[in-house]
C-alpha cells in the first residue's frame, strides 16, 4: 500500500510540473515569469526524484526485512493441536474350525486393510491342541474395520483394546529439538570465527554433543509418531476340533516296538542284577537269620507235647 501511495504522489508531482510548464508558455510575454518557470519546474522535478529515491530506499529496507524475518516452519510432524496422539494396541482370540483356513483368510483381510504381519507362530508340536499366533501392524484408521473382519472368522473368546496418550511426550520432545537446533546454529557461528585451537576444539566437542542429543530425540519422536500412525493387533487362533495324530509308517512302528522291547529286557536284566547284588551284600545277615530260624524250629519240635 505504501508503494502505491508513493507512486501516486510521484505522478501528482509530475502532473504539477507539466501544468507549471504549460502555464509558463501561456504567459510567455512576461520575461520575469519565463525566468522563474524553469526554476520552479527544476525544483519540482528534483523533489520528485528525492521522493522516488526515498521510496526505493524504503522498499529495499522492507525487502531486506522480509528476507531476514524468520519464517515459521511448516508443521510436518503430524501432531494436530488439541488432538490426542494415541498408541493403540488390540488383542483378539478366536476359535476357528481350521487353523490353515483361518490363517489364509486372516492374511487376505490384513492385506485388504493395508496391514503387515510382524510375527507368525504356528504351534504344530502338540497335535491335540493346535494354535497359531500373529502380530499385526495396521494403520490406525483401519484398526476398527480390521478387528470387525477378523472377528467374523470364528468365535471370539477374548477381545481387548488399550490406548496410550503420548501427546505430551511428543510436544516436549519437539520443544527440546527446537532449542537444541538453535544451540547448534549458535555453535556453528562461533566455529566460523577465528580463535585459539583450544577454544575451537571445545566448541567442536560441544557441537558433537548437541548433535548427538538432536539425533536421539529426533529418533524418539519419529518412533512415537510411527506408533501413533500404526496400531498393533495380537491375534490368536485356536482349533475348535482336536487334530488327529499323524500315523507313522509300518516299518518305523515295528522298529520303535522292537527298540522298546529290547530296552525293557535290558531294564529287567539290570534290575535282577541289582537285586542279586543287594542280596549278596546282605548275605551274612541273611545267613544269621536263617540259622536262628532253623535252631528255633528244631527246639520247638523237641519239646514234649503236654
UniProtKB/TrEMBL annotation:
Residues 85-295 form the DUF4349 domain. Residues 1-24 form the signal peptide. The lineage of its organism: Bacteria, Bacillati, Cyanobacteriota, Cyanophyceae, Nodosilineales. Residues 62-81 are annotated as: Disordered. Residues 163-227 form a coiled coil. This is DUF4349 domain-containing protein. It comes from the Bacteria. It holds the Pfam family DUF4349. Keywords: Coiled coil, Membrane, Signal, Transmembrane, Transmembrane helix. The chain crosses the membrane at residues 275-297.
